[in-house]
């Protein structure tokens, strides 16, 4: 039986841009702009520089752009570097299976769009379809947590989000490479068989973080591109990788699967509409307490020097040692530190690469504030299973208690800023554009050198009207922005 595999493969290659609802087209543009911004913000980080140097070593035909630089490389190498860059700051979108899909989806599709000289409509269609494939397979396998008698008791021993990122890249690549249904079926088999190892449990237990966290988003994107190109050349893979007793969910280590979640509403219920955006560059689990913290700071005009103590009330997965760390030793660890995130926010550090540059990491004000932050459990989120729908979570409460002015200011956020399910937390187009500007080197108000402001605005305008342009228009504007960033010393 190849029912599940072939059905999803057919959807991947038969769906066209014209089939996308206007809301999905608009959301795809927003995701594209946000993801490109996250990549641009990382080009001057240690991990970003490694990605760029790695592309130089690989060489290859100059088929595709490497964002934030003057480099061009092969489609696989460009997809690798760009997707890795997009995940470096942990500022990229998060789907409610605890997965970042934008990085590999966007940049596998962009690399092949450049290789095959596709239109902006082609690129947008590939991103929407690829995202749906990854999100559906993630929902099919369920969230990466152990649930016993309706209670969450920890992370799965195996499984996790790494492979589903790859599946999104496979879907996007198969779509834009214009495979037929049979070739897409083989691309699924090739990519699924070569997915990353399920290292989430190892990541959850590690205080010292590797640069790729639980998976290198670059490799996920590269697997997607390679799978589509190999299938287009005639290479074969398992045709039933999603079917039968030994389907993908089982050999990847997921404790179960939900076939209904995989195909329900296929072509009608677009999963990209459920992705969440990050106003702050840190783990999404920190965003609920951060949302409550930001609300209290604004409501009561609290200043850093007035705050004597902050108690973060976190969900069960944000209570491990790395989330409690008050003295993160490097920027990777700081991305998971409640204390560092609150310190950067209260001191009005623009939420982008500056949160983790040497000036901020070594700022005595930041260090002193971190020491005043402790982390405990949020009682209302003790059972995350209550917040699950179809293998996805819909908000997980977190809060803060701020000790200042001789009193305690408290707030709890059921949804974090950037969640699409409530009007109060939905990330507006203006917020996405503002975040994009900060990632390119502008300040939080969008101010900066005129050339940089113009170049950043041009990219944003082109992305938001990409269905009217060829992909070359986008990459040319990105090249101009990269040159402007380099002139200002904020790019490689």
TrEMBL record:
List, alphabetically, the InterPro entries matched. Answer: MmgE/PrpD_sf, MmgE/PrpD_sf_1, MmgE/PrpD_sf_2, MmgE_PrpD, MmgE_PrpD_C, MmgE_PrpD_N
Q: Which PANTHER family match?
A: 2-METHYLCITRATE DEHYDRATASE (PTHR16943:SF8), 2-METHYLCITRATE DEHYDRATASE-RELATED (PTHR16943)
Locate the MmgE/PrpD N-terminal domain: which residues? Answer: 6-253
Which molecular-function annotations from GO does this UniProt entry contain? lyase activity
Q: What is this protein called?
A: MmgE/PrpD
The record lists the lineage as:
Bacteria, Pseudomonadati, Pseudomonadota, Betaproteobacteria, Burkholderiales
Q: Taxonomically, which superkingdom?
A: Bacteria
Domain MmgE/PrpD C-terminal stretches: 280-440
Query: What protein family does this chain belong to?
Result: Belongs to the PrpD family.
């Amino acid at each position: 039986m190849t029912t599940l595999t072939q059905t999803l493969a057919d959807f991947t290659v038969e769906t066209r841009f014209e089939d996308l609802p206007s809301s999905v087209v608009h959301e795809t543009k927003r995701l594209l702009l946000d993801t490109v911004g996250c990549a641009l913000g990382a080009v001057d980080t240690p991990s970003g520089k490694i990605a760029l140097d790695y592309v130089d070593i690989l060489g290859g035909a100059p088929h595709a752009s490497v964002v934030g630089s003057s480099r061009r490389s092969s489609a696989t190498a460009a997809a690798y570097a760009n997707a890795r860059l997009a995940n470096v700051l942990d500022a990229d979108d998060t789907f409610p299976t605890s997965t970042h899909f934008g990085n590999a989806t966007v940049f596998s599709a962009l690399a092949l769009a450049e290789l095959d000289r596709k239109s902006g409509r082609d690129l947008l269609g590939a991103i929407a379809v690829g995202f749906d494939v990854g999100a559906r397979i993630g929902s099919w396998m369920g969230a990466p947590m152990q649930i016993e008698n309706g209670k969450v008791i920890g992370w799965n021993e195996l499984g996790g989000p790494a492979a589903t990122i790859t599946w999104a890249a496979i879907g996007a690549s198969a779509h834009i490479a214009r495979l037929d249904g049979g070739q897409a079926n083989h691309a699924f088999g090739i990519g699924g068989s070569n997915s990353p190892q399920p290292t989430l449990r190892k990541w959850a237990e590690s205080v010292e973080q590797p640069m790729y966290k639980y998976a290198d988003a670059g490799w996920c994107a590269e697997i997607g591109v390679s799978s589509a190109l190999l299938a287009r050349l005639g290479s074969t893979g398992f045709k039933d990788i999603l079917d039968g007793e030994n389907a993908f969910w089982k050999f990847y280590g997921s404790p179960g699967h939900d076939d209904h979640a995989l195909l329900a509403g296929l072509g009608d219920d677009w999963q990209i509409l459920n992705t969440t955006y990050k106003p702050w560059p840190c783990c999404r689990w920190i965003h609920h307490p951060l949302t409550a913290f930001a609300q209290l700071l604004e409501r009561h005009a609290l200043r850093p020097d007035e705050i004597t103590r902050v108690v973060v009330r976190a969900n069960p997965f944000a209570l491990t040692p790395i989330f409690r760390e008050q003295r993160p030793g490097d920027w990777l660890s700081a991305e998971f530190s409640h204390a560092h995130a609150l310190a950067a926010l209260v001191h009005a550090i623009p939420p982008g690469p500056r949160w983790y540059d040497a000036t901020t990491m070594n700022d005595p004000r930041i260090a002193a504030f971190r020491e005043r932050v402790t982390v405990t459990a949020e009682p209302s989120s003790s059972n995350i299973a209550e917040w699950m729908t179809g293998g996805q979570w819909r908000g997980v409460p977190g809060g803060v208690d701020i000790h200042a002015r001789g009193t305690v200011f408290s707030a709890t956020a059921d949804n974090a800023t950037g969640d699409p399910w409530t009007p109060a937390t939905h990330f507006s187009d203006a917020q996405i554009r503002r975040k994009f500007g900060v990632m390119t080197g502008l300040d939080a108000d969008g101010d900066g050198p005129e050339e940089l402001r113009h170049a950043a605005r041009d990219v944003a305008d082109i992305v938001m009207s990409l269905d009217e342009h060829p992909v070359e228009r986008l990459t040319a504007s990105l090249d101009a922005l990269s040159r402007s960033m380099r002139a200002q010393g904020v790019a490689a």
